[in-house]
Amino acid sequence: MAMAQGEVEVRSRLWRNGELEAEDFPFEKISEYLQQDGCLVWVDICDPDSQQLRDLADELTLDPMAVEDAVAHAERAKATRYASHTFITAYSVKTAEQVDDPAAPQPFDVSKSGLAVSRVSAFVLHRGIVTVRRGHDFDMDAVVQRWEDNADLLKFGPGALVHGLLDEIVDGHFAAVQVLDDQIEGLEDQLFDDKALSKGVQQRTYRVRKDLVELRRVVLPMREVVNAVLRHRKDLEAPQELNSWFDDLYDHVLRASEWTESLRDLVTTVFETNLSLQDSRLNTVMKKLTAWAAIIAVPTAVTGYFGQNVPYPGFQQEWGYFLSVGVVIGIAVGLYALFKRKDWL
User: Fold this and answer.
1) How confident is the model over 18-35, as pLDDT tens digits?
2) What is the rounded CA–CA span in Å between residue 69 and residue 72?
């Protein structure tokens, strides 16, 4: 259970020599545990205000600039090394499919984003980390479960906690990219479906492009974050045993970035192809209208000609009527066959 400090939700864990020893211990014991050998401390604070973070900074000797970045809005994802700690801030992503109930039909709104973005910051200390979240959108339970699944890594110190946190965030990026990839494939199927409404395809293409731009703002800076973490592995108390884990994490970040870039090109191609297909369909419609206008013009011309008040072959004769009908049908059928052969109809 999490304990509350005022209106702020606080969670904490203590590992000693890689074994879980305590949970949700008193807030005042944080600095005491951080001074003990063999201890690994994690503290999570959700929606703190500036004063509460300043009190924490005084308790743990955190840099004021890092504390300000933890609560500032629209802060860029980064990893910065300070004298007593390393400050990391990153953004997690959830798609509408993960946020909403899939069984509940949701009305399509082109102005509404299909992504839920939340920020997570971490102060990496000598024997622990302090995570700061804005809101409850980021599932910290998933990070804790990841730490438990790799409990053998916790003996290597705060570097293992940092890896688990960043790995969960990057996996969320992968899941979001996969959803957008599936949406683009659906748009490709609709492009060549004559029954699909062009306006609907345009709206969904715009929505995917908008979500992809927002996702790129989150995914691309992660390369710098993980790269900075790799450079400061010694400062993060990450021994060589964690090198392969961090290298694998960096590889995942690169793959997510490259995948996002490829989707950007793909959705642009879908958008341009949709416009080209609209022009092609318009040309087809114009050809059909022109062809039918030509066919209809034939009986109009023939009947108008035979309607002249002058003698003509078959004038006032029964066979003259059949002659005019035959001329109308013959020429109309001939034009229809010609236009059909040219694929105008």
Assistant:
1) 888 888 888 778 888 888
2) 5
Contacts of residues 334-338 at CB distance under 8 Å and 24 or more positions apart, as own/partner, are 335/291, 335/294, 335/295, 335/298, 336/291, 336/295
Mean pLDDT of the residues in the chain: 80
Report how far apart the first and last C-alpha atoms of the chain are (Å, whole number). 72
Instruction: Average the pLDDT over each of 75-79, 97-101, 117-121 and give the range with the smallest value.
Output: 97-101
Mean pLDDT of 93-114: 55
Q: How many residues does the chain have?
A: 345
Per-residue tokens: 115: 């992504």
What's the farthest any 2 CA atoms get from each other in the chain? 121
Q: Please, is 51 exposed, middle or buried when counting C-beta atoms within 10 Å of its C-beta (0-12, 13-18, 19+)?
A: exposed
Beta bridge partners of 10: 3, 45
Q: Please give the Cα distance from 260 to 173 (Å, whole number).
A: 10
User: What are the tens digits of pLDDT across the range 148-197?
Assistant: 998 888 888 888 999 999 999 999 999 999 998 888 888 877 777 766 56
- Beta carbons within 8 Å of 334's beta carbon, 6+ residues apart: none
> In DSSP terms, which residues pair with 81 in a beta bridge?
86
In terms of Cα–Cα distance, which of 139, 167, 195, 180 is closest to 253? 167
Are 108 and 257 a contacting pair, CB within 8 Å? no
